[in-house]
Design a protein that fits this description.
The protein has about 350 residues and is α+β, with helices and mostly antiparallel strands. It is about 65% helix and about 10% strand. It has 13 helices and four strands. Helix 2 runs antiparallel to helix 8 and helix 10 packs antiparallel against helix 11. It is elongated.
Amino acid sequence: MKNARIKRIKRKIHNYFFDHRVLRFTLEYIFSLVLAAVAAFIFGFGFCCFATGSDVGEMTIITGGASGVGQIANMIFLIFGVNVPGNLIQSIFFFVVNVPLIIFAFKFIGKRFAILTLVNVALTSVFMSALQETSLIKDIASSDLIKNSILSRALFAGVCTGLSSALAFKGYFSCGGIDILTYYISLKKSANTGKYTGITNVTIIILYTVLHLINIAVHPENNEQLVDPIIGMLYAAVYLVVVVLVIDLINVRNKKVQIQIITTKEHLSDVLIANFPHSVTISNARGGYSKKERYVLIMVVSSSEVKKVVRVVRSTDANAFIEVTNIQQVYGKFFINPIK
């Protein structure tokens, strides 16, 4: 009874918003803006608490992406003897690098995607600079668990960055920088975004490591060892792996599954096609025990659509046998809702 009541309430809410499109559009935008702010705060929190050290000279976790470009710019300043306190340089370059990429997103991905990404990037730039000076961030960054364990910093920073990017992908926008390019590539190739994020960040991490080595050679008075950048690169690899795992764990938009349905209802294929933008392959079969005629329906859908497929099948044929199998890649025409 309780589940039926909840379903009726959901149906009424759905029908109400279907009849009031302006209200639905407004609430969707407000929700996306809130999500963009939350994603920006999570990234800024992780960057200030874990990626950058609490003290000058403490090892920095190389984050890759646009923030990684900011770290490279900061290292170049250090090579020339200019030490800017806080994350001011990273914040400025994070925003500057994202401007042409957002223009690219506006032209080739979608207007709504570009606008929300711009909001997220602007807020992230603000949080990266503002949070660094708050007492809470300083207390966390200087705590023994964080300050004395680079591995903990790499893991926590990776979780924050991955969660931020995954929330952005859930809201159909991005955290800017490399995410925009990987999002575009993943849409074209219909593949997971995590691996593209990892591949594109490797170059940034290597470049930062090379510049760090140059900085040590130019400024021996800093008492840094040549092995420090190499160790930093290894911890950056840990950070990067965590980011990729978190993104692919949460972002299921480009994950595909094959659903195989054994049923006695031939018209079930028409029901599925009416409810989903995917086709169905039908094969004739015969039950090994009952010797009765059966139909095998094969359908490839996104992971996010699986529950709805099962619900639709069960409502048409309660005795249907359903098998769900994860697949790595799909070649050919597979419909994915376009990004606005």
